[in-house]
Amino acid sequence: MSEPISRTSSRWLDLAIFTVVGIALTLFFWWPLAVGYGIIGGDTYTYFFPQKTYFADWLKQGVLPLWNNLVGFGYPLVGESQTGVFYPFHLLFYWLMDVNSAYNANHLVHTLIAFVGMGVLARENGLSKSAAVLAACVFVFGWFPARSCLEWAIITGGWIPWQLWALQRAIQQKQPAYYLVLAGVTGLQLLAGHYNLAFISVLACVGMAVWGLSSATIDEDTDDAQAVSRWSAMTWTSMTLLLGFSLAAVQLIPTMELKSQSQRSTVEKFGEVGQGHLPPWYLIQTVAPFIYYDAMVDSDVLLGQPTFLTYPQSTNKVEAHLYFGLLPLALAFGGIIALLWNHDLSPSERWRMWYWLVLGLACLVYATGWLVPMAQYLPGFSFFRGPGRYTVMTTITVALFAGWFLDRVTKRFDAQTGRVVIGLVLAVSIFDLYVMGRNTLWMSGAEVSFFNGNGTGYTLLVANPGINQRNESPVEEIVSQSQGLTRIFSPGPNLATSTGLSATPVYLGIGPEQYYDDKLTMPAPPEDQRSQQGKLVTMPSQVTWLQKSSVTHVLSFEPLDATQWPIEAAVAVADPYFGRAWGRQEPVYLSKLAGVRPRISWRDELQENDKGATTIELKSYQPNRVEVETFISQPNQLILTDLAWPGWVSMIDGQAVSIETVDGQFRGVNVPRGKHVVTMVYRPWSLWVGGVISCLALAAIIIAVIAARRRGRVSVIE
């Protein structure tokens, strides 16, 4: 347990071992992703791919898109943080690779990052290399596979062990260099764009800073804990986290701007406080996963039923998933008993393990949802919901205790027997995690390959995924043949935009509040009145809304009722892309609407003698810039049926003019008579402010590294 781990050569050896083993296990668990398969299910095609395809397409054209002009009437892409516009891995992968390969590479690389990070955290807590490998397996392949439908899980969660490792080293070794590592890792995690797990990891860091023995310098020779001021540790930690937040300000401030004007601008608008919790009875999955992970059992139905001690709000099998492997769980229980009853532990070891135990249990209790109504009045808790996600820290606790007790057990054997025991534990645990995390469908007899199942979540891995056919969509080809800018109304919010079409309605985690305002959204009839005799019907108010919103086409699962819809043309289309994404073999129906207001038009009706002479010519339509050349004999207002949003500025012939809001959400510019060039540019103040803060924070880190180097204290490997 007390093997020396401070030497530079030992540190590099640890990193090398965890990297090699991590690569091998990542490929074992996710080999299909490495050879071009794709993830389907969950939010993949309705949320993540629509963002990433738009992002990738413009990156390859040399444009960093700050605004998405395809989803709905547009939204600030830089503010919708899960796109991760400035996240280095996103910039690199989506610039160099096709979308599916980049998406897979992100998953694989961050799985490796999480594995190596958990390995070094385990070593920092005194575990042997073999026990650290077990801990890394439990953390990475226990918590994340079921959440593969949520890209943010592995991308942001993979950085958590690195944060905890850096802070633990900083506090114990009293070396500022590790605080710089914590700041850098926190900045990266925030740039990735999902702040819920980041909030949880920040809480864990703060807890470590105020924990008694965690705030101690360890004398390796005497093994005595010499108390260091808790205030000092807390001050350094707070400053470091603030520096990490500042490093990510270029992402955080645009997101704050979007949130302040989104459907989640206030706590009251956010929704259920306990949504996504872990019911206490569902903890049975940790010891009997075959009951609920079987493909023939609909866990979501069971989780929706009111039972004893179940928090009375919605959840699902992904948010409530918690599995560590049977052997690791048994070892963890052994470790807890050893902590409670054994007295041969050093003070530092005892208090260190007590920290992890308290953290893991506290997060497990919070995951049930019962503390959320009280915690929501604390800073941050009112916004960051999803209490089931706190089990990521519980998983770290179980992983560390399992490895810690494995070391204690194997010490009772001779070296050769100990190696055999460790080998068996690792082999059984890896197989257990693989089967339960990925292949429950195979276990229950479903016709799914051994490598492709994922019974614990909502996703499957498929060869030649539909996203590879997004540029071969007949629907996209037909719509693009229409003159002018088009927009379609489509089921499956956002999906159509991955083909390059502008589409509504929308699905956004944090989206402009206009899209959720009953006065601005399309009126909807009751569910049982939307279809009659196999045809899609409508109301006059719906048609008016579509026409005023420049919706040129309607995509539907049923043909439109031509007696109610103003249709210019209609066709049934067998579209392989939409079919694969929706899991349908039936054709879809594409109809072109009549009487639609063009995306760019004049507000006031033109006089008959002006119609022939007046012109509107679209010169450029890019994410961050729109340019229109006009000629009109009388002053008029030019309307672009894209969302009016702070940050859009307009110029006529290079002179700044104001943008007015038309019909509650569209952009209007008053244009004088004559020939003019009207330009709209997206220049959000939040981006510039955030960019300046991020640059200053990066400069501060660089200066601190140089200063530490001169003092000979910069190495984070020693």
What does this structure look like?
- With 718 residues, the chain is α+β, with helices and mostly antiparallel strands.
- The chain folds into 3 domains: 389 residues, no CATH class; 134 residues, no CATH class; 83 residues, Maltose phosphorylase, domain 3 (Sandwich), CATH 2.60.420.
- Helix content is 45%, strand content 13%.
- It is built from 23 helices and 20 strands.
- It has a 5-stranded mixed beta sheet, with helices on one face. Strands 13-14-20-16-17 form a 5-stranded antiparallel beta sheet, with no helix packed on it.
- The N terminus is likely disordered.
Summarize the structure.
The chain has 718 residues and is of the alpha+beta class. Helix content is 45%, strand content 13%.
Largest sheet: 5 strands, mixed
Tell me the strand order in the biggest sheet: 6-5-9-11-10
Shape: globular
Number of helices: 23
Q: Specify the structural class.
A: alpha+beta
* Poorly predicted parts: 1-6, 213-228, 440-452
Relevant terms:
718 residues, alpha+beta, Maltose phosphorylase, domain 3, 3 domains, five-stranded mixed sheet, five-stranded antiparallel sheet, 23 helices, 20 strands, 45% helix, 13% strand
Write the layout of secondary structure elements.
Layout: H1 8-34, E1 38-40, H2 44-59, H3 88-96, H4 99-124, H5 129-143, H6 151-157, H7 160-173, H8 176-192, H9 195-210, E2 216-218, E3 225-227, H10 230-247, H11 249-260, H12 289-292, H13 299-303, H14 326-341, H15 347-367, H16 372-375, H17 391-410, H18 415-438, H19 440-443, E4 460-462, H20 474-480, E5 488-489, E6 503-504, E7 531-532, E8 535-536, H21 540-548, E9 553-556, E10 567-573, H22 576-582, E11 588-593, E12 600-602, E13 615-622, E14 625-632, E15 636-643, E16 648-652, E17 655-657, E18 660-662, E19 666-671, E20 674-682, H23 685-710
Helix pairs in contact: 1-4, 1-5, 3-4, 4-5, 4-6, 4-7, 5-17, 5-18, 7-8, 7-9, 8-10, 8-23, 9-10, 10-23, 11-23, 14-17, 15-17
